[in-house]
Design brief:
11 strands; mainly beta; 7-stranded mixed sheet; globular; 4-stranded antiparallel sheet
């Protein structure tokens, strides 16, 4: 079974940067269903629903929420079995618990940034952006 562990959260001032990391185990980068899977970052602010932030496919393709385009970059290191989210120009609105997630496989029943597609989740890491 896939296991995901996030790290790298913290507190920063508005305009600052953070880099989140997700360590995956039981998730080889080749072979079905893993070669037809997506990994992504989701976030949940207090009192709000969990929302998709960025997703990367097995082929390296990426998808971003409109709210983070141009500021966040998702990447994957297959050798280390790690996924990262570089967050720049952070805003107070980015404050949330950030979760690493995987869709194994990605079935396409929902949109790529919809949380319902993802069946494995990390424990979350807190990101706080102050003004």
């Amino acid at each position: 079974q896939v296991q995901l562990v996030e790290s790298g959260g913290g507190s920063v001032q508005s305009g600052g940067s953070l880099r989140l990391s997700c360590a995956a185990s039981g998730y080889p980068h080749s072979g079905y269903p893993y070669n037809q899977s997506n990994m992504g970052w989701f976030r949940q602010a207090p009192g709000k629903e969990r929302e998709g932030v960025a997703v990367i496919g097995s082929d390296g393709s990426t998808t971003y929420a409109d709210s983070v385009k141009g500021r966040f970059t998702i990447s994957q290191d297959n050798a280390k079995n790690t996924m990262n989210l570089q967050m720049n120009s952070l805003k107070p609105e980015d404050t949330a618990i950030y979760y690493c997630a995987a869709a194994v496989p990605y079935r396409g029943y929902y949109r790529i940034l919809d949380k319902y597609e993802y069946n494995y989740w990390g424990q979350g890491t807190q990101v706080t952006v102050s003004s």
